Amino acid sequence: MRSRFVLSTVMLVVLGAMSGCVQVIGPMDLRPDVAFAQLAPIPDVEQGALRDWTVGLIARDGAQSGGDDQFDDLSLMTVLHLAHFIESAGGKSILPRRDRTFAGCDTGADRVRELEALRAVECDVILEIAWAGRVENAGTVNSGQPRTVDGDLLASLAGELPWARMSEVVYDGLEGVPVYTITLPANSSFDVIGQRRECLDTAWDLYQALASTRRLDSPNDASETSGKTASRAAQVAQRIWPRGDLPRELTGWFCYTYVSVAIRNNSLAHFDVAVRDGAELTLVGRTTVPHVLDGLRGALRAVGVDVPRSEVVELPNRTQLRDGLFGVCRVPMALTYRRPHGRGGVQTQLLRGEAVFLLDREDGHFLLHAADGYWGWIPTSAIEPMAAAEFAAYCAKQRTEAESGCAADAAKQRVWAALNYLYVPYVFGGRSELGVDCSGVLTRALSLHGALPARDAWQQAFAGRLVATAWHRTGIQAGDQLFFMGRSGKIYHTALALSPTRFIHASPPCVQVGSFDAQDPLYDATCDRYFFMAKRP
């Protein structure tokens, strides 16, 4: 059996220690930028390669593959990974069993439920996946007359997985659908992280077999996709104005309402944008999240309004602030407001010595991001502006004085806890080692000391101390929580920093390591584009 689990020696040592006490080696000593240097990136599917295909997926349980729950888990994780690859390629996956829903039930009853679910759907092919401690006659195809599914799928599967045992079976009610059982030998020398990676790589091989046979039948389908749903921005627009085209005179009202509804974290993201009506409609104002303008324009188009021009200022306003983009509160305490001169309602309060990120300056007031992440206006007399180098030195001194050894240990433990989920399949709403989503990983990592964080990423964003923004990321350290905001204005994703540029997060198909560095093999362009802020728990 070949090994495709590529890790550096340092990383193998690290992951091997994760099952026990983690006090000996921590992420600060580990230097994740070195430890993950040889981590294999997650492969990308070919868009549209499985368009209009429906694949049924069955994870065979432990009783059917040797009676071991470990093999049951491997089968389930492989199926979940494969489902993500299929759906990313434009296909549809049918999983009768996404977790241990049937645990404790009779094995025969489980199989009946799975097959009943598959009979209700017109599948093009069904794959049964099983892992076992030993596989006899590996590499042979136990079928006298293999069917042809857009080419010889069974032969393609055997070519991609020569160490597996494969057979074709027929179930009552599914006589017209090819059903292939694939039994895979588990490598006992792998630790738990290595086994998960092997599940991921096996799922990729299965996907490639499906995609290669599909291309034989439909060579032009790969460039197309189907079943696209309306964007969140367009969905919000239709809820605000469900009556056809929006009258031009209501455009300003629509923009105000859209921002109020769509930007769930509007105390953290500054988006003060309106529409100026003249010879043509023009967007005006300022914002810390300029890509949300795309969402607003999409929402306007969804109700029949096109706004071709934009004069929105992207913050920080370097013309007004020049090099003084940072600052420190110089007074004992001061309130910040939604508008200059104490208008518009209180946002938060600054205390002496707190570091802030400056965004704009107008009429004797600064617009800023406070330590808790809230934006607000405050008189310039309350803030000591700083350039980047002076600000970095000040923050480093504050960390040395304020952060104890316990805080550093807590950051290390958060990293260890998140790394323990590496390669676990992505399951929306999941919080277990068989399936987890992005906020689920962070919930587990942040709850090590008994506190239970909020469940969703947009809720978690209100906690912690602001240490980095989209435009200034140098303050990120291992153990910080990262947040990402999409074009619709919603914080949709969260991750945990491993270093100033690398992070671990749950994103289909699995928990994985990404990077903000475009030269890094693990670079994630989407996360780089939509990074919103970092907070230190």
Structure, described:
With 537 residues, this protein is of the alpha+beta class. The chain has 16 helices and 25 strands. The strands form 6 sheets. It has a 6-stranded mixed sheet. A 6-stranded antiparallel sheet has the order 20-25-21-22-23-24. Strand 4, helix 6 (153-160) and strand 5 form a beta-alpha-beta unit. Helix 4 (69-88) packs across helix 7 (192-217) and helix 8 (232-240) packs across helix 10. The longest helix is centred in the middle third of the chain and has 26 residues, at 192-217. It starts with 8 loop residues before the first helix and ends with a strand. Residues 5-34, 63-67, 100-106, 140-151 and 216-229 have low confidence and may be disordered.
